Amino acid sequence: MLFGCNRPVAIRDFTGPAEAHASTSSEQQAVFAGGCFWGVDAVFKRVKGVTRVVSGYAGGSAATANYEDVSSGTTGHAESVEVTYDPAVVSYAQLLKVFFFVAHDPTELNRQGPDTGTNYRSVIFYENDAQQKIANDYIAQLTKENVFPRPIVTQVVPLNHFYPAENYHQNYFELHPDNPYIVFNDWPKVNDLKDKLPALYQPYPATTAQR
Question: Is the overall model pTM greater than 0.85, yes or no?
Answer without folding.
Answer: yes
